[in-house]
Design brief:
Shape: elongated
Order of helices and strands: HHHH
Number of helices: 4
Structural class: mainly alpha
Radius of gyration: 15 Å
Strand content: under 5%
Number of domains: 1
Distance between the termini: 25 Å
Length: 82
Amino acid sequence: MPTNEQALKEHLLQTDVEYRELAHTHRDLDRRLHELAHKSYLSEQEQTEEITLKKRKLQLKDRMADILRRHREGSPATAAHH
């Protein structure tokens, strides 16, 4: 099943605008979190940013999982309108 899951993700990246935008944003947040993680000291503002980014990243992941689930269940039209 992982191959099918990966194939579906690749398909959605090519065909579903919302999924593609979510994936790009998720990747950008991940990069910023990686930058913050490699700092020896985080200011208060950076600590707050880190928490906010982690929460946003989880929201994006949940939305992407929802789109995947709907496509797996055979109702891509529903996923596209959500």
